[in-house]
Amino acid sequence: MEYRALGDSDLRVSEICLGTWKTFGGSLDEDGAMAVVDAAFEQGVNFFDTANVYSQGRSEEVLGRTLAGRPRDSFVVATKVYGTMPDGDRGLSREQVLKQIDDSLRRLRLDHVDLYQCHAFDDDVPVEETLGALTEVVDSGRARFVGVSNWSGEQIRRAVALAVEHAFAKIVSSQPEYSLLVRDPERDVIPASRESGISQIVYSPLAQGVLSGKYLPGMEIVKGTRASERDASIWEYLGEDLLERVQRLRPIADGLGLTMAELALAWVLREPNVASAIVGASRPEQIRDNAAASGIELDGETVRAVEAAVAPV
Fold first, then answer.
1. Range 3-209+265-297: architecture per CATH
2. For 254-303, how does the pLDDT look when each residue is reduced to its tens digit (9 = 90+)?
């Protein structure tokens, strides 16, 4: 496993991050979650991503139990705040940021998280209020660093400028969706982040599993997969034309002795501004397979062939 600096912080995170959306506290029972976390540590994964809203708080609870007893310096935990909780709490007001960090720490069984992220931009709250509250969280020792998720390049630039002006805690990370099939961050998020010492922690690098090649054109959806559950987040990737283009990656991967998932993850990690790619896992072998992508270097000719195979995106 290779490790990268997270922005200009002193955090070193594994190139592969284990995400807990829909699995921990959801589709996975507790024994299954423990097995996946054990496999992650075996592969050198030290980075775990969750959010207060995942499975209505149960994701944090399960992750906390799976990490209990391990040395605190052996893992990096990132969680998020913004989404609507079961009691109706929502948003990035000072009141919510300070309340939700305490609730998250209780569920995670930790006295601090390494990274506290805004899950989305809150149009209803002044950015200054949110950044001030995040600074209070850092100053109180409840989080080491702060980041954002699903913010535009313009929003990131404004927040960075305000942090300098008002001595707010500096943003060190951005979490956008990024993959061979979703390259929007290259337009503004990555350039804005690069200017300010901010790294990307990308989600859906395998486009909800489609880039692993397991969904074939014309094939009946396999029972037990996310697609079989009619998950709206994946159906945008299941058009016949797109699936046919994804299959063009197979001979490229075969020629390199890689799986399609390894190839897709290696393509994401070729971007220097990406610190880590978040992958989900329902079984230990899935995290083992994805962890194998760390350290793979693709030459320019391969990158061009990969991008041409799935074009246009």
1. Alpha-Beta Barrel (3.20)
2. 999 999 999 999 999 999 999 999 999 999 999 999 999 999 999 999 99
